[in-house]
Amino acid sequence: MKIRSICLLVALSFIIAISGCGKKQTTTNDLSDKDISFPLENGITLTYFVPNAAPASVSSYNDIAAYKKIQEITNITLKFIHPVANQVSEQFNIMIASGDYVDVIERPNTYSGGILKAYQDKVIIRLNEYMDKYAPNLTAIYNQHPAVDALANIDGDYYVAPLIRGGQELCTYVGTVLRRDWLKELNLEVPQTISEWETVLTAFKEKKGAKAPFSSTYANFKREMFSCAFGVGENFYVLDGKVHYGPYEDAYKDYVRTMADWYDKGLIDAEIPTISDSKILDSKVLNGEAGAYIGTVGTGIGGYLTTKQNDPVFDLVAAPYPVINKGDRAQFVQHDQAVSLNNAAISTKNKYPAETVALLDYMFSKEGYYLCNFGIEGESYVMVDNQPTFTELITKNPEGLSMSVIGMKYCRSFVSGPFVQSSAYVKQFYSMPQQREASELWVKQFNEAGDKAAYGQLTVEENQEHSKIFSEISTYKGEMFTKWLMGTASIDSFEEYREKLREFGIERVIKLKQQAYDRFIQRNSGIERFDISDVESYYNN
Amino acid sequence: MKIKGNIVRGNAKTKSGVFAEIKRDYKLNKYLVFFSIPVVVWYFIFHYVPMYGVIIAFKDYNVAQGFLASKWVGIEHFKTFFKSYYFVRILINTLLLSFYNLIFSFPIPIILALVLNEVRSKVLKSTIQTITYMPHFISLVVICGMAYIFLSKGGPINSIALLFGGEEINYLMYSQYYRIIYIALGLWQNAGWNSIIYIAALTAIDITQYEAAEIDGANRLHKLWHVTIPGILPTIIITLILNIGRFMSEGSDKTILLYNEATYEVSDIISSYVYRNGLLKADYSSSAAIGLFNSVINMLLIYGSNAFSRVVNETSLW
What we know:
The complex is a heterodimer of chains A (541) and B (318). With 541 residues, chain A is α/β, with parallel strands linked by helices.
């Protein structure tokens, strides 16, 4: 009897295990012609997967006042599912593997292979069929602003409600920052050229005793902050219609040589390759070990100045992106794409795709725009001269909460999301003169340098080939850069390195990117510049 | 609890047939069978059933399509891995690290146990034992964090070096120090803990053997060599075989906590490579393929060392 029952148990567990993996694919693409008006007559509930980007403010996005209001207005209940920080990709994949998708997925790019692959594998749906009828605001924005439209579709198809950044200051916000008080004390100007930088850093080291004259997190250091002076970017970019990969260019050698030289002279933090956490940088800047660093306008300038507000001398100044000869123009400036597609997508398991599209579109309506960016009128903002203005509750919080912490309790503009992010928000967020100065300087430099982004999306097949080749290239490149920087490999090996990149297939990767770019340009041949700063005009009339 | 049945081998001659034999065996040992059920079920459900997932090593596994529906690609992922630029490097790094681990981390717990065995004072003995096995309970993250602080510029080790006119070095940034640090940390953490099994084996040695040896005129060294070591040799051999079985599966945790781009050259091992390329980039199929490759090698190693040990000194795992 016992043996038989064991057998039964074994067989049973096997059946459970097998049946667990064969899951059904059900798609609900019912395209009924129903009209949707808010509030819905019969309320519905939607599950919504999104990483909580503001854990200091709210434990769930349900606690954000704007979302409460939106749910009230639409009669749609949102159930937010927040993956644990640092495990977004794991939890996303577990969700997909279980076959039990949520209704709205923010961050569809987390899907291995990207948005197009997610559509091909029937994880998310295409929105084309819903756009005209259920997304009047998005459709109107796309019609009025062809540049936005160009960046929001993938070869003519729409898959997400994107984040649209309403101004250049929302795209360009990283740069080099120096201790203004040290410069003053040493009687030095803000450095503009590479040689001036060397002078300043040397002075910081010798006269101020800075242990790490220039520091940064390593990820930020490997951006175009200094390579821009040598005419190379750190990644893919387009010059005269041709795609380039910065670390594969000749001039990259000169850039690396300079960095290695600075490192050798002790001008760059000797520990820079191990700085993976911004907290390490924070302490170096605040303790006066570092006199210059790479930072953002928000935390890198505003955050440090707030922490040091009782220090009478501590002051910061943003440096322009450097050049070789005085008077030259910087050629590469950090710039996030104005339209981010890694936003709200609708899963195939969603039973109410039309209602969901209408809900997402509501965020792009005028009311939705104010709610997402500024929160609740009369509480978190008031209209002053027809301009939404944060109240003192947000700007000078009586409990002493920082603007982004208290702000996120009311609206979502402090982090990305599916709406038009307002430039008026960010102008108020950059409350200090040093911040405004930095933002204006870097935006101006970006406009002078021009947009060199390698636009265009790879197809599913191209993307597979690309990621296979490029993962080896980026590991190799990262390692060689570190070796050169630390002097453990001679820069003379640069030609061998380029040969190795060719062996890995860099030419092929560049060609794939070129194809995608060409397709993009061909499709959008009528558009001069992909500048979308005027997108907010949609709300101003 | 009293177990009535004895472990008796069924005799096929009295009643023929395999089933009859099983039945008799069951009758005799039914309580043992009963006791083993939970373990067998646990192993089956959690260790054998999931093995069907290994098929993703031969497929282009895609989380949305699931195990069965994903496209079959055969040995494509193995080919890609073997052809990869990093294959030779991570293989050598894994082997070297495991080899150093074996030659350093294996004998030291034995020596520690033997030394402790010779300590007469009970208080001293238990104090040393407690101190040496305590680090085992500290989380790996904390240990690696401590290593960072101790080895960085301005840390205690560099301060001492400066005191004697040396230079400050961030040891974790130079590949020549990496393996030493890795092995030393492992030793510091686990030597005491690993010695427990030998200390236990030592207590099992019959005291009369020592008395006999003393009567024969053996001194302490003789006793150590002729009584103690042979007494714990089976334990040593079994632990050695088990260690060899884990030869290729050097864990990724410690590596990921300790390495950086400056030391990838010597620090990147199979498991950290799998972590970076498989888990972080959600390329589950290729990581399953590499994991399978790893397991096959480990199985061959454990079989080989077991067979070798059986031939050479008649001690073996099975």
